[in-house]
Amino acid sequence: MISLAIRDIRYSWWRYSLTGTILGLLIAATITLFGIYRGMVADATSLPATSGADIWVVQENTVGPYADSSSLYADEYRGLAGFPGVAEVANVLYFSLQVERGTDDVRVMVAGYQDGKLGQPANIITGRPIVQSKYEAVADVKSGFKLGDKIKIRRNDYTVVGLTERMVSTAGDPVVFIRLKDAQEVQFKKDNTSIYNDRKRQSTTEDNESSKYKTNAILVRVAPGWDIKQVAANIKQWKHFEAYTYPEMEHLLLSKIIEKAATQIGFFLIILEIVSAAIVALLIYTMTMSKLKEIAVLKLIGANNGLITLMILQEAWGIGMIGYTIGFIVSVLWVPIFPRYIAYSTDIRLISFALTMGICSLASIISIRAAIKVEPAAAIGG
């Protein structure tokens, strides 16, 4: 079978290769945008997914603690601990701030958790968990801190004893884990005057200490055999808090945090595909028009429209294969440049490949119609 693609590569290789390269860059951008979206989803759900909680109890009429501000008294968890169907509860506190790393400022999310309970740092890849009651921290590798580094959080220095991976906030900021009491002091004891007033107003017993501070949320693990949705509904009804199950929390994060960004990515992907189709269509049409006489000769010697169509499609698919190969290589090479996490997976590559070949097929329709209309008599014309 005669191949128009091989003929064009042989005699017009520069034009064929240039179009494949341009298409490859567009495909690289397409693959990257898919990866950025997947990365945003992974970032938004990284803390909830690794917390070990079944239910998030937050302030009434809020969608906290990740998508909205929420404030609860720290001793509220005691009332939930004895609630029917509840196996474990734990306070957590989240807030973002700037910390110094050498001469640079790094924005991080501080996560305060209770030792041995829900919300502990997961995915520790080196070092150890926090074992001292104060002034130790576990940081995500994205923060740039190393084991043994000091992180100054407000007035105190915290020694990095462990490093996690893929523990980030919904905004993609690396998380620094510290003990809950440390986080509460950072959040609520901001200066000496505040410390003096707190001590003057309340005693320093454990009960009063936990009641005067607040947390963002109470994590709840449901006992085996209990329906998670029903336990959440009961907490909401009788405790007058908002109680979200994991699917509800995930939906809130995806709809409140990344919905607009996802829409923008979707529109940009559509624009990229239209531009890609236009480029391929222009090249295939130009090449087809330059070979109308050869196509007429083929028809004259017995080639049918199906064979002509297949030859033009092969030409378009050849450009698509070159473009996808270049796009895949380029997308892999420039991933480290991006500041946020980009998630690549096999399905993204397969979807991108299918889109590329589909676009190339659609872009060849005009050329196919023009080739089919060619009369065999044109082969012996002037």
UniProtKB/TrEMBL annotation:
It comes from the Bacteria. It is found in: Cell membrane. Residues 267-376 form the ABC3 transporter permease C-terminal domain. InterPro entries: ABC-4/HrtB_transporter (IPR051125), ABC3_permease_C (IPR003838), MacB_PCD (IPR025857). The keyword Cytoplasm does not apply. Keywords: Cell membrane, Membrane, Transmembrane, Transmembrane helix, Transport. It is a multi-pass membrane protein. Residues 22-237 form the MacB-like periplasmic core domain. The chain crosses the membrane at residues 12-37, 265-284, 319-338, 350-372. Its main location: membrane. Part of the ABC transporter complex hrt involved in hemin import. Responsible for the translocation of the substrate across the membrane. Belongs to the ABC-4 integral membrane protein family. HrtB subfamily. PANTHER family: ABC TRANSPORTER, MEMBRANE PROTEIN (PTHR43738), HEMIN TRANSPORT SYSTEM PERMEASE PROTEIN HRTB-RELATED (PTHR43738:SF1). The complex is composed of two ATP-binding proteins (HrtA), two transmembrane proteins (HrtB) and a solute-binding protein. This is Putative hemin transport system permease protein HrtB. It comes from Sporomusa malonica. The lineage of its organism: Bacteria, Bacillati, Bacillota, Negativicutes, Selenomonadales.
